[in-house]
Structure formats: C-alpha cells, structure tokens
C-alpha cells in the first residue's frame, strides 16, 4: 500500500478519535491493521471481555505467524485454550505428559 493511503488512514483515525467515534476508531484500527491501540487493548483485558480481546488481537497477528505471536496467545489465553484450538497441541502433548511426570526431590 502506498504511503499516501497509509497517511490518509492515519488522518481518518485521528479525526475519528478527536470526534469521539471510539467504536469506529477501533474497527478501522482492526480492519486496516496499521495501528495497534495498546490503551484500548488494555481496557479490553481489564474489563475481562476475552472474546473481544481475541478478535482485536487476531486483526494484527495469528497464532502461527511467528514464535512471539504463539507466546502471546499462549500467555493470554492459557495452555488449555491454546492447545484445544491449535494444531500444535497433538505434537506437544507427549512432551507435557513427560514433563508432568518428572518430580524433583531435594
């Protein structure tokens, strides 16, 4: 995308934010993928609206994009949900069972 298009999207975001069109701002952030609003993301997390947290995050990164995305999803949504919805689960499951069976004695 051209830099002119990108600048136009940022100007529209700025205008919508100044005019208090909060829902529209966040929808455009998601759909354009140009700007991740950390403040909005924190508000979603603090409110406990996990479905909306997943939707907002999914607009910018997917679980399989890279190891950092995988770590974010894993830390945010927990091991159970991560493995349940991921094709990585069956590959890692034997490792987790082996890891749980090891005990440390002092």
Automatic annotation (TrEMBL):
Keyword Transcription applies: no
- Cross-referenced InterPro entries, in alphabetical order? CTLH_C, Topless_fam, TPL_SMU1_LisH-like, TPR1-like_2nd
Keywords attached to this entry: Repeat, WD repeat
A Pfam family of the record is LisH_TPL
The UniProt record lists the CTLH domain at: 34-76
Origin: domain of life: Eukaryota
A single GO BP: regulation of DNA-templated transcription
Record's keyword annotation contains Disulfide bond? no
Q: What is this protein called?
A: CTLH domain-containing protein
Q: Which organism is it from?
A: Artemisia annua
